[in-house]
Specification:
Layout (H helix, E strand, L loop, with lengths): L5 H4 L2 H21 L1 H7 L12 E2 L11 H6 L12 H5 L10 E6 L5 E4 H6 L4 E8 L4 E11 H8 L7 E6 L19 E5 H5 L4 E6 L2 E2 L9 E3 L12 E7 L6 H5 L23 E4 L7 E2 L7 H4 L13
Parallel strand pairs: 1-4, 2-11, 5-12
Antiparallel strand pairs: 2-3, 4-5, 5-8, 6-7, 6-11, 8-9, 8-10, 12-13
Amino acid sequence: MDRIRSSDITDRQIYLNRRAFIAAALAATGAAVSGTRVRAQEPAARGRKLVTVRSSLSTAEPPNSWEHLTTYNNFYEFGTRKSDPARNAPKFKPRQPWTIAIEGECAKKGPIALEDVLRGETLEDRIYRHRCVEGWSMVIPWVGFPLANLIKRCEPTSKAKFIEFTTLHDVGQMPGQRSDVLEWPYVEGLRMDEALHPLTIVAVGLYGEVLPNQNGAPLRLVVPWKYGFKGIKSIVKIRFTEKQPVSSWQLSWPQAYGFYANVNPAVDHPEWSQATEARLPSLFKTTKTVLFNGYGDQVASLYSSMDLRKNY
């Protein structure tokens, strides 16, 4: 017999509010005991080395350690606690070949293998600041290539104003998808000019090595001036659209998670201030949060005509 979901028998607004409350409670709990969890989990095993080139689009700040980056993660497909991905993701076996479905307003539709994408790319080291909406931040040495390169290969039409990304839906391998904390599969989106910006990359590695499972293997989105939930992982579909897509967190809790998700210390989350952050491994919010996560000189022009309090 098929399991009846609570969303099928409960008023939808009550159902979504309940899920938002659960998500906030889980995030707060994770923040309170995160130090213990970081140390309790084994870091990801080192993987295959990637051949990369140094990029000029980096930060001089020292990156967090491999241990920090692979034991403290937001990846709800593997669980809601920060330690869950490190515990559950090692069992995940990304299929070979990994294919991405290209759909929507573009000339080159159809499946494309990640191997074919990478064959024509020069991978770059990108050391980016990463700011999570819960109030913690890291400096992460990604390996990837500009998303713009992949977009151009798809030849989007003039109707393509937005780009939508979808994560793999595999309940057997991703135990977090058995919960109803979010609607699955996970969906995120960008405006086309955001997607084409040179700071936006497709990451396939970390610290010069193949991307670990808990960090979004085999490919994920990285948009460094936005909050971390924009960094959709294990991508299996890219769709070009004329209308703005609805992202998973926006659907779950629109008062807290807007479509744009630009780091903005002046716009609080409903449950906490965004004015300061804790730079891991510190658990104390002693670092001032900077507009656009410090990348304002490169991206502020994208939003010059927008009210960033309404378009959060």
